[in-house]
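Comment on this:
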Amino acid sequence: MRQAYIWVVLSLGLQQAAVGKSLYHILPEQPAPLTWPQKQFEQQARAREIKLVRQQARTEAALASEHQQKRSLMGVACLLALGWVAGSLFYWNLRRNRALLATANAEIRASMAEKEVLVQEIHHRVKNNLQLVSSLLGWQSSSLPDPALVEVLAASQTRIQSMAMVHEFLYGSDNLAHVRLDAYLAELLNSLHKSMTTPQNPIDFTAELDAVVMDAKDATTFGLLINELVTNAYKHAFGQQQGGRLHISLTGVKCPHGFTLRVSDNGVGLPTDGIEAKPH
């Protein structure tokens, strides 16, 4: 019995030792308490690590900012390059357009100068032809015995001369589209005065002419109208009256290309019983 008891006690002791050994491997080993120098060293190590981490973070932030600045600079450089290219293309296109415009303007000016020369030559030829017709009428009237026919040819001759003066003014003018009525009428009225006034029946002639402009296509018709009006005034306004005064005024008005024409004289006036119409 005593041996059996000892065996049981030994078995229990071995079991407790095995359990203790397994628990020793399972449970972590408790660290020994640190001393004050060890704690201070550990705190300094942790502070150095924190400082190192902060420096590394600042370095990374600086690198990221530098990379961002480089990217921004590259973007700005690309924009400047694109702007320079666009500006160069625009400048080149502008110069090309200016060159084309200058060439087109030169061609237009040359064409206009050529057309002006042609139009002036046309007016010159028309004037010469009208003067030729007027000369033929004058030569024909010199050989006619009938004074009535001579008077008719002389009237036709003055009409042709009034038309020829328009073409003469257009031939010598820089503006082929308009005629200065003051200069045209001054010459036309002087010509009529010389041809219609005689020493036996002197008529004083005065004119007040403003600088009025008229289209060339209307100036010929207007010249014929003035020719008829003034010629009739010389022929019929004074009757048997010896001498007289004839005044013509051309006044411009505010409306575009408007004017007022007045023909006045101190002749006998219109008959009281009216004017008898004569067949043509």
Summary: The first strand starts at residue 178 and ends at 180. Residues 4-10, 17-27 have pLDDT under 50 and may be disordered. The beta strands are 178-180, 203-209, 213-215, 244-252, 259-265.
